Amino acid sequence: MLTKNFGRNLINAFAVTAMLATTSAASTAVAQDANAVVMKNFDFAPMSITVKVGSSVTWKNLDGEPHTVTSVDGLFRSGALDQNDSFTFKFDKPGTYKYLCSIHPRMMASVVVQ
Amino acid sequence: MSSDSEVNQSRRGALKCLAFGGAGTLFLLSGGVLAPIDLALAASKKSAHAMTGTPLFLQISDTHIGFNKEANPDVAGTLKQTIDFVNAMPAKPALTIHSGDITHLSKAEEFDTASQLLSGLNITELHTVPGEHDITDGIGTEYFNRFGQASANKGYYSFDHNGVHFIALVNVMNFKPNGLGAFGDDQLAWLEQDLKGRSSSTPIVVFAHMPMWTIYEPWGWGTGDADQATSYLSRFGSVTVLNGHIHQIVQKVEGNITFHTARSTAYPQPTAGDGPGPGPLKVPSDQLAKMLGVTSVKISGHPSSAVLTDTTLG
Lengths: 114, 314
Prior knowledge:
The structure holds two protein chains of two kinds. Chain A is α/β, with parallel strands linked by helices. Chain A is 21% helix and 32% strand.
């Protein structure tokens, strides 16, 4: 994606800035670098991530087995993410949000929003 | 015919079958002793028939329609192969149970493909329970749209066939933080009520997706509140608990309860604790069919006993 070349040259920088300015979907793409969690070898990594209020977290499944991102309190739920599928959620309120994979519920992690 | 002669006949049949080598494994249950015996059902249908009679029902599990990774790029093909095998069985079981993970990602089109394939079975009566892969939206919309009617959309239900009481349970919708499956209080109360007043001589078959005993807790291979369920079942003389989920055969006998997990028709999984997690296991392509299969079950005699026959596709 564009984000890989972020800042490398003016054209890419311009493109990213333009995306930021347009829709929330575009800001999702940018957020992948900063607030990214992967599912790999049946774990979330990192297991705890701290983000600012109003920012998004993007999860990506790198395993050949599907996983889900399912919040314990029901706030967000990704559905099944197959290998290389992503899911993004925007956190509007401070707090600690615990979540798990509903297919492999021993996979537990949290998002801290400050 | 007395139960003794029934058992003896089975033993004679089993001994005959030993000569044919192993395409599968037979589990002969009598008096709480489970004896695995190699079985070549495909090699000698006649002998297998003589030994097992007509199976009452068939268990298919973990078809994972929608899976397309290297462990098996053609899960529809292996399910079709399974169905062809079942349709060619010399004695047709009365019904089929599917113990969950019908689909891989709970998608509508996956359920449609699965239904279309399963309709090719010439056993028309099909009973299902959901696996965790069938309800990844949390409420199982696609699953219940298709299979909810049997249970008024609760997922768990019971029915009787040929004097056997069948109980379908759901242990994939109430996960606890320890990662094990769970039934939840409502379902356990329903189970207690369902069994109340039934004669202890009624043969019971329970099926649920996740194993109803803890096989390996770090991978969530168990059901946290299964002990309460088994406490309701323990007074019955013959209880057969059939699960899927782990894509391999593991069995245990506890009193009169036989616990048994089935093979998948899609792909194998590693044995407990081997590797980072319970994902698809890639095996050499000529080995795959040997790790996929179905289970057929015969229940007979007074007191009743169950004979479980596991057969592989290769």
